[in-house]
Design goal:
By secondary structure, the protein is α+β, with helices and mostly antiparallel strands. It contains ten helices and 16 strands. It is 20% helix and 20% strand. The protein is globular, with a radius of gyration of 20 Å. The protein starts with 20 loop residues before the first helix and ends with a helix.
């Protein structure tokens, strides 16, 4: 069976005029920010911003990741131990929720933020309730994120006013009338991905700040790619350690352009990353299977690439034993969800569209990490040591090679 990159089906001639859930992501009513609680976090891209921003390099992150400086007992994050706060684990291996107003991310010292980095790098996912984060303003959010590394400017998503590095996701309030039109030509709207894996230096941490959320539903589901790698046989692990996979934002850009959304960062990337990566702090291996952006396996025939990628779709996304669901729990929960993109996939869920709900409105701080690498083949170009120019890892689109 042929492997299809997510979003590519829309551009077949028989589908081009039909409804597509991903296309709707880039549609914004001109008056939308008049009907939200935090209008500063819902700014359309201005025409003069098109092509204004460049991509960042981050060549020293492997050794500068803040988790290297964290305390293994998290004594700066939880001075009296985590048990001083109301908390529970989402699963034994992945995710911890803290629901306690006395614990505030905004009040962490630098050493506390170092511990937070290490906490996310070991637990993978943190769900923090009763936070004052969203009321601190965009300047605070930007400075908080920059402590962990350079911030990503998304090519085609909405953002906060005058803060392009704060990505905005928005689904407007509505009634059950939207359900039939939304799913007119699709049975699903999920989109498994690791944030901006198409970049040469993809994301390390994401901080997802709830501004408004439905009372139930609209949650984010996560997959642990460490465990997905562990479940493979040693023979397949060793084989996958040698593979390089091509990631691209080409269909994301096409969908945005079709919806009339300008691109702040111009151009389609075709970037090479190893299929298995090593975490720079913990040393753990994980698959780096960002379903939303992967195009094909490099160096093998098309049918062989399809076989490998279709196996990974089934293996990675079909096993509930290494998935957890982070509940958003409505606007009043004041949630901040934070995770490590290097070994997690995630997707939003739009399971609330048959009900009357308010807005689903969040902003995201996206921190850039190291260039993915492993101990067998190095990075996507086979380099065992990081470094080089901005063009490293970017290849000519396959269609232009023929």
């Amino acid at each position: 069976m042929s492997y299809r990159p997510r979003g590519s089906d829309f551009f077949e001639p028989v589908n081009i005029n039909r409804s597509h859930p991903l296309k709707r992501f880039y549609k914004l009513d001109p008056d939308a920010n008049k009907n939200v609680k935090y209008p500063i976090y819902l700014a359309p891209t201005k025409p003069e911003e098109a092509g204004k921003f460049r991509r960042f390099e981050n060549p020293d992150h492997k050794k500068n990741d803040r988790g290297h400086f964290g305390d293994a007992q998290f004594k700066n994050l939880f001075p009296k131990g985590i048990d001083q706060f109301n908390h529970f684990d989402l699963s034994p291996d992945l995710g911890t929720e803290i629901d306690d107003e006395s614990f505030q991310l905004s009040e962490l010292t630098d050493k506390g933020r170092d511990d937070l980095a290490l906490f996310l790098e070991t637990r993978g996912l943190g769900v923090f309730r009763q936070q004052d984060f969203r009321d601190k303003g965009p300047k605070f959010a930007k400075e908080f994120g920059e402590y962990f590394g350079p911030l990503h400017v998304h090519p085609v998503s909405f953002s906060a006013e005058n803060h392009a590095e704060l990505l905005t996701t928005f689904r407007p309030a509505g009634s059950s009338d939207r359900y039939d039109s939304f799913y007119e030509d699709s049975t699903d709207s999920f989109y498994w991905h690791s944030d901006v894996s198409f970049e040469v230096y993809p994301s390390s941490f994401s901080f997802f700040v709830a501004l408004e959320a439905p009372p139930s539903g609209g949650d984010t589901v996560f997959i642990d790619l460490r465990e997905a790698y562990r479940r493979l046989s040693p023979t397949i692990q060793a084989f996958f350690d040698t593979l390089v996979v091509i990631h691209s934002n080409v269909y994301q850009n096409k969908l945005a352009e079709h919806a009339g959304q300008p691109a702040r960062v111009a151009g389609d990337l075709y970037t090479k990353h190893p299929l298995v990566r090593v975490h720079p702090v913990t040393g753990e291996k994980s698959l780096f299977f960002s379903r939303g952006f992967i195009q094909r396996v490099e160096g093998v025939k098309k049918q062989e690439s399809d076989f490998i990628l279709n196996f990974l779709v089934q293996h990675v996304t079909s096993n509930p034993e290494f998935q957890v669901r982070a509940l958003h729990r409505g606007t009043d929960s004041r949630s901040v969800i934070a995770w490590d993109n290097r070994f997690l996939l995630h997707t939003a869920t739009l399971d609330f569209l048959r009900h009357n709900t308010g807005n689903r409105h969040h902003y995201r701080i996206t921190v850039l990490g190291e260039r993915p690498y492993n101990d067998v083949i190095g990075d996507g170009d086979g380099n065992k040591d990081e470094g080089g120019s901005e063009k490293d890892g970017i290849i000519t689109p396959p269609a232009e090679q023929e």
